[in-house]
Specification:
With about 70 residues, the protein is an alpha+beta fold. The chain is built from one helix and three strands. Helices cover about 30% and strands about 25% of the residues.
Length: about 70
C-alpha cells in the first residue's frame, strides 16, 4: 500500500503491483475497512451494494485492458 486518499468522497487505498504499477481500490473492498455493523454478534450480514459491484466490474475491466496492453508489448 502506498497511501490512503479520499477521492470523490470515497476512502481509497493507492496500491502498487510489481507487474501492473499503481492503482486505486475503495478501502471498503479491503481488510482495512471499518468493521461492518452487520458483523456484530446476532446480526445478519448486509447485502452487496450494486454500485460497489459495478465499481468492481469497472476495476477488473481496467486491469484486464492494462494486462492486454502489457502482453502486446
Amino acid at each position: 500500500m502506498l497511501k490512503e486518499r479520499r477521492v470523490a468522497g470515497v476512502d481509497t487505498l493507492i496500491l502498487r503491483n510489481a507487474e501492473r504499477g499503481s492503482f486505486a481500490v475503495a478501502k471498503e473492498w479491503t481488510d482495512r475497512a471499518r468493521p461492518s455493523p452487520y458483523e456484530a454478534p446476532g446480526m445478519t450480514p448486509g447485502r452487496l451494494d450494486a454500485q460497489f459491484l459495478l465499481d468492481l466490474v469497472a476495476l477488473v475491466e481496467q486491469l484486464s485492458v492494462a494486462s492486454e496492453k502489457e502482453l502486446a508489448k
